[in-house]
Every structure is written in C-alpha cells, then in structure tokens.
TrEMBL record:
This is DUF1295 domain-containing protein. InterPro entries: UstE-like. Keywords: Membrane, Transmembrane, Transmembrane helix. It comes from Anaerobaca lacustris. The chain crosses the membrane at residues 6-24, 36-55, 61-84, 105-128, 206-224. Signal peptide: none annotated.
Amino acid sequence: MILWQVILVAWAGMALAMLLFYFVQRRTKNAGIVDFVWAAGVGILAVFYAAVASGSPERRILLAVLAGIWSLRLAVYLLVNRVWGKSEDGRYQMLRRNWGDKAQTFFFAFFQIQALWAVLFSIPFLPVAYGKTPLGPLDYLAILVWLAAVAGETLADWQLARFRADPASRGRTCRVGLWRYSRHPNYFFEWIHWFTYVFLGLESPFWWVTLAGPVVMLLFLYKVTGIPYTEKRALESRGEDYRRYQQATSPFIPWFPKREAP
C-alpha cells in the first residue's frame, strides 16, 4: 500500500470504531469509553502499519510487539479502572452538563476528533514500520527505554490504586513510592515511552517525524487533558492537603521532595 493509502485506511478504521463506541456511549451514558478506544486504537494502528509496511520484518515485528503491549496494558487499565462498572469520569460529566440538550451532537464530534488524534499519535510509528536496516544498538536502547517506561507507569498505577483502596486514605493525597517524587509519575513515564519510537526510527530519513510523539504528548499532558484538569480536581477534593503536596513535590519529572509546610 502507498503511504497515503495506509494513513487513509487508518483514519477510516478509527472513525468507524469511534462511531460504534459513540453509540455505546449513548446507551451507557459513559463517555469515558472514548479513552479506552483511543488507547486500544493507537496500538492496533501500530500493528496495522507493521503488517502492511515495507520495512524489514524484524523491525516491523518489534514495533508491533512494543506498541501492542503498551496499548493493551493502558487500554485494559482504563477499561477496568475508569469505565467498566464505574460512574462517568468528572471531565465528561462536566461536558455533558455544559452542552445540555446538544450533548450527543457534541459527543459525536468529540469521538470523531479523538479518531483523528489517534491517527496523529500513530504517525511516529510509520518511520519505524518502513525502516529497512537491521536491528542495531539504538534499537536495543529503545527496548530498554520501553521497559523502563512501561514498568514505571505500571508501578505508579499500582501504587495509586493500592493507596485508594485503603479506606484510611479517603480525602488524602498519595505520597507513596513514585508519588513521593512526582505529582504525576504515571504521566512522566507515559511521556518517556514515546522516546522508544524516536530511537527505533533514527535510522530512517524521516526520523524527525518520530519526535511528534514526545512533543505532542508533552503538550497534551501540560496544556490540554493531563495535569491542569487533574490538579484542579485534586484541589477541589483534597484542598489544603493537595496544596502542601504541590509545594513540596515536583509536578512532572521525579525529584527529591521539599519539606512540606505544617
């Protein structure tokens, strides 16, 4: 397939998937399903690129395995912890209230925009899928980055889930493990994960395309859907406890905490 055809098929597939799950959202009244579809869709696109591209087989297999496992872990986590049997996430409840009678019209557009974003985030996979050189030291470095990132994100998610499961933690801020050194260690390791494809794609003439992954992800985490909203909700629910946590703890990159004010 020609490159533009690959991208067009990727967009059509994601648009169809988002359309189907838009109707699931209408029935369940839980728009959080869009996060699960996005996470699963990006991984599926990586596998699709690996299947149809003309790069070396070992490079395409490595892309499918790394991106596929990352996607599966994130999608399952979102499904189990934010969608399945859970009330709708506060972000989408707020949108539903703000949009009022036109909520379903706006949600339809929102789901389709997420389809476009999924394709955008999958673009860094293309230089890897079309790379023709044998695997080398940079690719092994990419595997190490991937292992560290996925392990760190998994550990951060587990530590937070364990903290929240304790009734004594209600109304308190998690300062356990990685959360002692960063207010958002899960976001940090998610960002680090996207450097995997930078190293995998460095042998390609179009390696610079892979930079879109960490750059766009950092933009989203800092300015769009990540840190601003999460911290706003945390201040509303935990107040002064979270303000002390903000003053003492690095917002993103893990670092030694300062002493909290009494």
